[in-house]
Write the structure tokens for this entry.
Amino acid sequence: MGDLITRFLITTLVMAAPMLIGAMGTLFIERSGIINIGNEGFMIIGAFMGVLGSYYSGSALVGALTAMGSGLVFGLIFALFTVTFRANQVVTGLAINAVAEGLTSLLFRQLFGISGVVPKIATFEKVSIPLLSQIPILGPSLFNQTLVAYLGLLLMPVTAFVLYKTKLGLTVRSVGENPKACDTMGIGVNRVRYGSVLYGSMLAGLAGAFVSMGQLSFFTEGMIAGKGYMTLAAIVFGNYSPVGILVACLLFGGVSSLQYQLQATASAIPYQIWVMLPYVFAVAALCMYRVRSKAPACSGIPYVRD
């Protein structure tokens, strides 16, 4: 029984990590007043470029940095259209997703072909924390993870501190609530939103790299499979709070872990039923959620200076 719980907790954290990393970055984007539907695209480009960087360099660190850089580039394009050109944020995000999906599929087939041979790349290795990893049940699951997974957990308190205890966090939240008042006080609204988008897209790229180099060991087409949208669901379910987002990501990760357990034990039921379980749970959770939203007052509204 203990081994079963340990395996469940390990898989839960592995499944929650990319959503948590992506959501903590996207929280800054959302708090600044930008609706980020493009997270799916940031993550898929990060997943591909992370593998590409690792494949050619032989280093998982280079792969991670390449993934973050690719997310940054796509984030710059997203910010250019939504902030500078004031395009519809939802439509722009969907366009980013479509372009990233098509581009990664094209490049993957051109560079690696469609053979069944999977090239070997450097992936994120687990780092065991001495003594703590020996704690029964919790030790192997909490303290025997990859550095990127540890980073995801560390981002929660860091994000909470920056958002609520620093001038930078106050500025980001103020821009999302009342950009006109911020502009009147001399705060560069567009500059803050650009910075938020670039930071969020960079973390989303790293989150995508964790999927291809932490959960798996290579890239496959469509491997993000809605995780970018799940990060948005986690933000809404967590009511735009770092602690709430952590709880939401762990819940979604737990359901994702559960579906793997059910696939292994309930072989008579088509596996597609269990695959869709996390998404059904996310939709049901959002439908039943009845708490006053803390979404920014000017979310999704482009700022136009008078």
